[in-house]
Design brief:
By secondary structure, the chain is an alpha+beta fold. The protein is built from 16 helices and 25 strands. The chain folds into five domains: 123 residues, PH-domain like (Roll); 129 residues, PH-domain like (Roll), CATH 2.30.29.170; 28 residues, no CATH class; 127 residues, PH-domain like; 100 residues, no CATH class. The strands form six sheets. The chain has a six-stranded antiparallel β-sheet, with helices on one face. Strand 10 and strand 11 form a beta hairpin. The N and C termini lie far apart (143 Å).
C-alpha cells in the first residue's frame, strides 16, 4: 500500500498495487550456532563473502540448475508381486496293487502346482474315464513339510528329474512348463534334463483295440434317404384264418417304407368287432424273407439270428397286388393298393397290370327285430327298454311339465258300466295327475255292500283302446267329458261328475280341450247364488251317501296330516251362543278356512251341502260324520 507524497494517511488517499501477488513479511531474527541473532538487512546489490565463495563452487548449478534426486523404490509385497504366478511340474508316483493277479504296481501321473505368492503346493491327478479309481485332487493346496524339523518345501528345493517325499509317498518330477523353466533360469537355478513318464501296463491293456474298417458298399444310402424320405408303399391285405378253429378273416394295411426298406403291418379296426384296439400287428422293422435259413455251423441253439446271418430281405418286388405274401408264418393276400403305389410300380418296376380283388363279405339278411306284445306290467315305455338295450335305462321324463303341474290333480266321479246289478251302487273317484299323465282310481267303501272299497287302481298311464306299442296313445284331460266312457284295463267307467277345479283348468286352457268336453263340464256343474257368496255344486247326493262322503273326507284330511279337529270343534261350539247346533253358512265356511279345512274340495263340499238347511249348517252333524 503506497501513499502519494504530500497526502495525509487517510482513507481514500492510499492506493494498492494490483500486480502484487506476494505479501511475505521479512524475518528479523536468524539462527547461528543455535542462538538467535538479529538479521542485518542487506542493501540492494551487496553480496557477502560467504555467498561469493559458495557461488564460485556452484558454477554448474547456476548454469544448469539444481539436479533432481531419484525417487525412492516402492516396496511391493510377495502376494502382489507373485499373484497368479504358478510353477507347474509333471510328476508320477507308483502305487502297489497287492491283491490283483493282472498287475503288481500302477503308474499314476500327477501334476504339481507351486503357488509363488504363499509357497503352497497342490497335487492333482487327471481323471481317466471308467478307471475305477478316485482321482482328481490328491493333496489340496497347502504348505507341504520337507523334513521332521518343520521346514517346508520352497521353489528352490524343486527341480526336474528329482524325487520328493510328501506324506510318505515318493513323487518323481519329470518335466515342467515353459513359464517354470524361464522363472528358474531367471533366478539362477539350472534345471536337469526332463524325463519320460513311464507307461502304465494295465492302462495300456484296457485301451480299445484299433478299429478294423470295411470298405463301404456301392449302394448310396444317403441318396436313398434324400430321394425316398416320406415315401411309403401302401397295400391292402386280408388274412384268411377261417381254416383254423374260431378263425376269421381280418383286414390289414401293409406299409413299405422306401427310405430304409422297413415293413409295418397295421390292423383295420372294425365297428363292434369285439377286439381290443391294438392297431399295430408288426412294428416297423427290417423283415427277412426266411429267418431260419442259416449256415450249418451256426449255433442256433445258443445264439439268435442277427442281421448278418439273414441273406434275403423283403423288397418291393415281393409285394404284388393279387398275390399272397408270407410274413412270419401268416399268409396275406394283397387285394389292392393306393394310387402312389401304382405309379411307383409303373415308373420303377414296369408293372402296369393291377387287378384288384373284391374281398367284401356278402351282407346277410338283416333280422327284423319284433317287439313282443305288452304284458300289462308296469309302464309301456319302461317295459320297452328291456327290448332295446341289454341294461335297461329309465325313460326320459318331461321335467318342465312336472315342475309346472306339480300337485295339480283333476278329480272326476264315475260309475262302472256293468250288467251286474251289484255294480249299480258302486261309485269311483278318478284322479288325473297333470304332472305325469297318470290315472288313479279310488272306490269309497259302502257298508254292507259286500264289496271291499279302497284303491281300485294305482297311479299308472292308461292306454286308449286300439293303440299299439309302436304308436301308444294315452288318456288325457280332454278325454274326460261328463257322460264319456273311459276303458281302464277292460273295465269301462262312465264319467258322471267333475271337480270345480276341473272346470277352472279347462276354461284356463280352452285351446287344449274340445268344445264338447267344455260344454259337458259347464252343463254338469250347476251354480247357486246365496247372499254375497256363490257356491258351485257339482252333484247333488242323497243322505244315504253321507257315510261314503265322510269316509272320503277323512282320507283327504289324513293325506294332508290334518290335526286341528279339536280346535275346530271348540271354535264352532263357542260361536253357537244360542246352543242350536247350527251356524250361518258364511260363518261356518270362514271358521273352516281358518282351521285349514279345504271347503272347496268336491267331497267336503258335498258333505257341507248335506248338512245345510235354510242357509244354516248343522255343524253337529258335520262333526259326527267326521268323528271329531
Amino acid at each position: 500500500m503506497d501513499t502519494p507524497h504530500g497526502l495525509p494517511f487517510l482513507p481514500g488517499n492510499s492506493f494498492r498495487d494490483p500486480t502484487k501477488t506476494q505479501f511475505h513479511l521479512s524475518q528479523t531474527l536468524d539462527y547461528k550456532n543455535g542462538y538467535t541473532i538479529p538479521r542485518v538487512p542487506l542493501s540492494a546489490g551487496q553480496i557477502s563473502q560467504a555467498e561469493m565463495d559458495e557461488l564460485a563452487n556452484k558454477l554448474p548449478t547456476l548454469t544448469y540448475g539444481q539436479a533432481k534426486p531419484s525417487p525412492p523404490v516402492d516396496f511391493i509385497p510377495a502376494h502382489v508381486a507373485f499373484d497368479k504366478k504358478v510353477l507347474k511340474f509333471d510328476a508320477y508316483f507308483k502305487e502297489t496293487v497287492p491283491q490283483s493277479p493282472a498287475e503288481q504296481s500302477r503308474i499314476r501321473p500327477v501334476t504339481l502346482y507351486y503357488y509363488l505368492e504363499d509357497d503352497s503346493i497342490a497335487i492333482m491327478e487327471p481323471q481317466i474315464e471308467n478307471s475305477g479309481i478316485p482321482q482328481g485332487k490328491l493333496i489340496k493346496r497347502q504348505r507341504l513339510p520337507k523334513n521332521e524339523r518343520g521346514d517346508h518345501y520352497h521353489w528352490k528345493d524343486l527341480n526336474v528329474a528329482m524325487s520328493i517325499i510328501v506324506y510318505g509317498k515318493v513323487f518323481r518330477i519329470t518335466d515342467c512348463d515353459k513359464f517354470t523353466k524361464d522363472f528358474m533360469e531367471r533366478e539362477g537355478i539350472e534345471l536337469n534334463h526332463p524325463e519320460q513318464t513311464p507307461v502304465d501296463p494295465y492302462t495300456e491293456q484296457r485301451k480299445e483295440p484299433q478299429r478294423i474298417f470295411v470298405s463301404p458298399s456301392d449302394f448310396d444310402r444317403l441318396r436313398q434317404f434324400l430321394t425316398m424320405d416320406r415315401k411309403v408303399l401302401r397295400f391292402f391285405a386280408i388274412w384268411d384264418d377261417t381254416s383254423s378253429m374260431y378263425g376269421e378273416s381280418r383286414l390289414f394295411i401293409i406299409h413299405y417304407y422306401l427310405v430304409d426298406d422297413t415293413v409295418e403291418i397295421r390292423e383295420v379296426q372294425q365297428v363292434n368287432s369285439g377286439r381290443d384296439p391294438f392297431p399295430v400287428l408288426l412294428r416297423r422293422q427290417h423283415l427277412p424273407k426266411t429267418k431260419y435259413i442259416v449256415d450249418k455251423n451256426f449255433p442256433a441253439c445258443v445264439l439268435e439270428v442277427t442281421d448278418q446271418e439273414v441273406k434275403e430281405w423283403f423288397s418291393p418286388m415281393d409285394f404284388i397286388v393279387g398275390q399272397k405274401v408270407t410274413i412270419l408264418g401268416r399268409h396275406f393276400l394283397l387285394y389292392d393298393c393306393d394310387k402312389y403305389t401304382r405309379e411307383y410300380y409303373q415308373e420303377n418296376l414296369g408293372i402296369h397290370d393291377f387287378q384288384s380283388i373284391d374281398v367284401s363279405k356278402k351282407q346277410l339278411d338283416e333280422f327284423k327285430k319284433e317287439i313282443p306284445p305288452y304284458n300289462g306290467f308296469g309302464i309301456l315305455e319302461d317295459s320297452l327298454q328291456n327290448c332295446l338295450t341289454l341294461i335297461p335305462k329309465p325313460p326320459r321324463k318331461d321335467v318342465i311339465k312336472m315342475l309346472e303341474n306339480d300337485h295339480k290333480v283333476l278329480r272326476y266321479e264315475a260309475i262302472l258300466d256293468s250288467i251286474n246289478p251289484e255294480d249299480k251302487r258302486r261309485r269311483f273317484i278318478i284322479s288325473f295327475f297333470l304332472s305325469s299323465d297318470m290315472i288313479s282310481i279310488y272306490e269309497p267303501p259302502i257298508r254292507n255292500s259286500g264289496i271291499r272299497g279302497g284303491k281300485f287302481l294305482e297311479k299308472a298311464k292308461v292306454l286308449k283302446p286300439g293303440s299299439t306299442i309302436g304308436n301308444p296313445q294315452y288318456y288325457g284331460p280332454q278325454d274326460f267329458a261328463i257322460g264319456s266312457i273311459v276303458e281302464v284295463f277292460g273295465n269301462k267307467f262312465v264319467i258322471t261328475n267333475a271337480d270345480l277345479y276341473v272346470l277352472k283348468y279347462a276354461e284356463a286352457n280352452a285351446s287344449h280341450f274340445p268344445l264338447t268336453t267344455l260344454n259337458s263340464l259347464r252343463d254338469g256343474i250347476r251354480t247357486q247364488c246365496s247372499g254375497s257368496q256363490e257356491e258351485k255344486r257339482i252333484v247333488r247326493v242323497t243322505k244315504d251317501q253321507i257315510e261314503i262322503l265322510a269316509q272320503l273326507v277323512k282320507e283327504e284330511l289324513m293325506k294332508q296330516n290334518y290335526q286341528k279337529n279339536v280346535g275346530l270343534q271348540k271354535a264352532l261350539i263357542q260361536e253357537d251362543k244360542a246352543n242350536t247346533k247350527t251356524l250361518p253358512k258364511e260363518k261356518f265356511i270362514a271358521l273352516c278356512e281358518e282351521f285349514d279345512i279345504p271347503v272347496h274340495d268336491i267331497t267336503i263340499a258335498k258333505l257341507i251341502f248335506l248338512c245345510t238347511y235354510e242357509d244354516k249348517i248343522n255343524y253337529d252333524a258335520f262333526l259326527k260324520a267326521l268323528n271329531f
